[in-house]
Amino acid sequence: REDFSNADLLNMKARHAEKTRQPAQLSVADEIARVSIELFKQTQRVDGQTVLSSFVAVNSQNCARVLSYGVGTKVAAIDLIANDKDGIVLRDMHAEVLARRALVRHCYEEERVLRQDERLFLYCSSMPCGNSTIRRWAKVKPPPEDPTQPHAPFHILAPGQVDVLCKRHPGFCSNLTIPKWLPNGCTPMLDNSLLSHTCSDKIARWIALGPQGALLSKAFGRLNIHGIIMGRKFSFEHARRAFCCRIPINNFSHPLLLGTPLKLDDSIFQSESDGAHFDHRCYAWWPSLGLEPELLDGQTGKKMDGNPSALCKREIFLIWHKKHGEQGDYSPCSKKRSSSYAEAKRIYAAEWYQRDKAALFSQSPFSRW
Fold first, then answer.
1. Residue ranges in the chain assigned as alpha helix (H)
2. Please, what sign has the CA dihedral across residues 295, 297, 301, 302?
3. For 297-314, what is each residue's pLDDT tens digit?
């Protein structure tokens, strides 16, 4: 964190997400939001509401460049996931997940993603779904004056405060009683491998283990997320609970948690339960695409033309095989293929990744993952 001046870091303190200020007052957090929003608007526009997320590299001069972005709020139907034997359906097309998969794709295409003096930030135009949107178990108060100061001790008041949750996929049915505090579109953790974890849970995992995943953990090491920039509905206390302070291991860095008043659009943000229309089109972008992001159908988990996404499990596994010169079955699903994909991750993951993942998943709440 010494790459940023004290004045810059103090200027990063979060402000209310719905206020507007003049461009001359832009902080580092605002600059990250600005370059993300401008790149997306250069390439596409959507009908109705949506969510934008991006991974952004920032250097010591506070210059920001977007490494990947995702746009979307959809998850594939349960029947499509159950019948996907070749790993060609994207289960989760929420913006944060698409941005991360696009970052992984970019890592396969570039030997070095971050330059010497750069740090990695995650931008979310709205608070990610799941734990960070639960407005309980914490008093809403101003964020710390100095965003680099250590987070205060975290006290668990109730099991649901830190529990992992799943997204509610179309076609999913359950007789389970849903707690009143559970956010819209979420369901309690179930023994159902077809359900996707919420974005809050996935971000916590990326903070603990890095967003590069198991197969890139040797080549890239741990890609530390230096900070998370959030737009609408930002709350520091709920963000720290969701993304870092509930992580039960110690060998990771708590990220900077910052708000920005810059908005993706000026509409009054509503949830789908309030009657809002979220565009079913989703987008994913990484640098090799130029100004033409991949256009995805949120209802099918594939590209709008019906072909598999370059970010689907099969295609990512194909790239990995080509990079490592491995022979064998490229498809990650079906009994035989699934074991080969899992075996590749087990064999080729770095020792630190296997150790930290085992430690993370051995303790509550992540032992239920």
1. 6-10, 28-43, 78-82, 95-109, 199-209, 217-220, 236-240, 313-324, 334-348, 351-361
2. negative
3. 999 999 999 999 999 999
Sequence-distant (6+) residues with CB within 8 A of 342 are: none
Residues in the chain: 369
Q: How far apart are CA 49 and CA 32, in angstroms?
A: 21
> Coil, strand, or helix at residue 348?
helix
What are the counts of helices (DSSP H) followed by strands (DSSP E) for the chain? Answer: 10, 12
Q: Cα–Cα distance between 221 and 44 in angstroms, integer?
A: 33
Q: What is the distance between the alpha carbons of residues 160 and 164, in angstroms, rounded to a whole number?
A: 8
CA distance 300 to 260: 33
Name 115's Cβ contacts closer than 8 Å, sequence gap at least 6.
Answer: 57, 59
DSSP symbol at 278 = B
Q: Give the DSSP per-residue string, 26-72.
A: --HHHHHHHHHHHHHHHH---SSB--EEEEEEE-TT--EEEEEEEE-
Question: Does residue 45 have a pLDDT over 90?
Answer: no
Tokens of 163: 């529990």
Number of other residues whose CB lies within 10 A of the CB of residue 175: 4
pTM for this prediction: 0.87
Q: How far apart are CA 285 and CA 303, in angstroms?
A: 13
Range in 187-191, 322-326, 347-351 with the lowest mean pLDDT: 322-326
Tell me the Cα Rg of the chain.
20
> Distance of CA 95 to CAs 43, 63, 215, 273, 281, Å?
16, 23, 22, 19, 11
Strands 92-94 and 73-75: what pairing?
Answer: antiparallel
Beta-bridged to residue 123, according to DSSP, are 54, 229
**pLDDT given for residue 211 in this prediction:** 98
pLDDT above 80 (res 139): no
Contacts of 358 (CB under 8 A, 6+ apart): none
Q: What is the pLDDT of residues 172-215, one digit of tens each?
A: 777 777 788 888 889 888 777 788 999 999 999 999 999 999 99
